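Sample A.
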Amino acid sequence: MINNQTLARPYAKAAFEYASAANGSDAWSGMLGLAAAVVEAPEVAELLRNPRLTRESKVEAVLRLFADDVDEAFRNFIANLGEHDRLFVLPTVREQFEAYKAEAEKTIDVELETAYELSAEQLETLAAALSKRLDRSVNPRQVVNPALIGGLVIRAGDLVVDGSVRGKLSQLAESLKS
């Protein structure tokens, strides 16, 4: 069976290309966020799974919830998704759209898991170093986890760098078991 990532990809790509050409990627990002939130609502998700409703009635119901907050092109996009019975992939379309947007803008979200709260200066220094290393503008988000004991774990996309004391102790324990 085909997964949501595969189903969403052509829609996300088309949406991103359209939004980029129209200089509206931020607006489309917001509209996709709104639409994704709507279809993720339990009541709407149940409605979309109802086999007795036609595709057109599902589109009408979904659009009724946010039609005033989106432009005509976006309403057409939603209608196209509905016509192909793909409204349920909107959250995945949004995720992929954001990935395309981040790639185009050369930005990346980075999670910094630390044992204690970093100062603004430390966070800024770390973000600058990561920005240089990753060749992207970094959007750091700090997560405090005292279980790390010290150091930090950096997560940026597929990259994970564990420089924590807990990580080093785990590596040492593994090497001693060998």
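Sample B, a different protein:
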Amino acid sequence: MIFEKLNIDLENVQHLIIILAAPFSFARFKVAETLLETWKKWTMKYQNIPFSEHTNSIFGLPEIYDDLLDEWIHEAHIKERNCILSRLQKLAEMKKTRITLFSGDVHCCGIARFRTRNNIPSPIHDSKLIYQIISSAIVNRPPPNFVIRAAHLFSTKWYPITNTEEEIINFFDQAPEYGVKLFFRKLLPNRDWCYFEQCESMDRTPTDSITQDNFLDKNFGPL
């Protein structure tokens, strides 16, 4: 129904931003899922396991595992996600529209990218090019550094559907707190915020735009 409406209404739209609660693309934690699946079976079979009442959600699952089950990249949802991805690519090609995904709920920030896998065209001509902006609420506590580092050690590139490359890309250069050069550059365990601005041309960097337009003072007060 949503795609039918988009097919009808999406005319002369240059950029479609889709907001999703959880990221369409994110780090995979297969080992963690396996361990938590085992823990789930134990807690369901032996309900008196010490500390289980403190780690289980209202659904009887370990709290972290319950969160992982909600992710698009969990095996329970990945086929549905890939089907939606394919339809988004076809929509972008048919309507000549750039599509960007915006999500949070993972308490960190990063950028993922879908693009053509073979014979990669220039970005402006790649209808498969979809960026995933990951930006979680400022009030949420970021995950520990070791969790983010572990995410970098697993694969961060996949090939989900025909002729499509999916990757969490290197995006961050410096730690915002200290300005030191980062070794792990794909995900950042910081409280963060994100805003979108329509630009008439590409001759301004985001930093220039924020400074020249006095964006921070207007929206957040003097810093």
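Observation for Sample B: Confidence is low (pLDDT under 50) at residues 51-64, 219-223.
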